[in-house]
Write a structure and sequence with these properties.
Blueprint (H helix, E strand, L loop, with lengths): L1 E5 L4 H10 L6 E6 L8 H4 L12 E2 L10 E4 L3 H13 L4 E3 L9 H8 L13 E2 L2 H9 L3 E3 L3 H11 L8 E10 L1 H4 L10 H4 L4 E2 L8 H8 L9 E7 L6 E9 L5 H8 L8 E3 L17 E8 L2 E8 L3 H16 L11
Parallel strand pairs: 1-2, 1-4, 2-3, 4-5, 5-7, 6-7, 8-10, 12-13
Antiparallel strand pairs: 8-11, 9-10, 11-14, 13-14
Helix pairs in contact: 1-11, 5-11, 6-9
Amino acid sequence: MQVSIIGAGGLTGKELLSLLKNHPNFEIVHITSNKTEGKTLEEVFPSLGIKRPSLKFKTHSAPIPKDSLVVLATPNEVSLEMAPRLLDGGHKVIDLSGAYRLHDQDKFEKFYGLKHTSFHLMKEVVFGLPELYRERLIRANFVSNPGCYSTSVIIPIYFLGGLRKKLISIVVDSKSGVSGAGGRTEDIGFTFTNTYENFRAYKVLTHQHTPEMEEYSKEGVSILPKIIFTPHLLPVYRGILSTIVFTFEEEIPEEFVQEEYSAIQDEPFLRLLSKPEEVELKNVQFSNYLDLAYRLDGNVLVVVSALDNLVKGAAGQALQNMNLMAGFDETLGILQG
């Protein structure tokens, strides 16, 4: 299957290119970046070792090969503008922005500060978290890739299963490397001189991933406590570590948690470790794994999770979704290449 990547010059685009270069069933046929038009992949990303002189960056407005699967690695406003036209043109589309994640238009416009100009598409979009929506993704034409913070939080909550009905509070403390928190932003707060030997919270009670966590964490249950989410900026490049504190209305037996979390063992990219202290960024960086572990004390459960924000939090998860949409093995090009 042919693949077009819109916004291939960004951090997530680069990560996806790296994963796709050895994929046996996907061929990159179209790449765009308004900042590097006319340059080859070797000129822009020499470290990838992709020698294809005929494949050059074009602008976002350039015609897209008709039958290609299109990945939008673009800002929210660009995805809002391009997705409707691509779907009308018969393309399968995966959007890596946050433009099509929330089914509440008011919340989207509040947290993203944008007017949603194609909200009717929310009727057909599938949230791209394979652990929750694998069967729907196999049949999907339009997928919204989850946020990196959201992935690190939704999975630990969702896999609590029926225990979620007994929750009275959820408090999340997350730490991200600068490639997740800031990406290629021009904000001086994400520069090396402002992150080295520094540590701080940001977007307290206003982060755009909060409503996403709340919407999808309650899949399968009618109600869930409000998620209190605080993100922090780590002085590292890649990786997210989240600590989630659950309080239940009563004491929970250990075997109840063990039984619910046992389903994690069936997932190819989830790893349940024996204790929270074993969950570390260095064990998930450059991989598509999400590691998690828990400790229970009466009615309080603490879960620690970690992932690479550029892989399981973005490009790796996108490739999982691409494989499912195309009818390939979900792990192809991720575990085997």
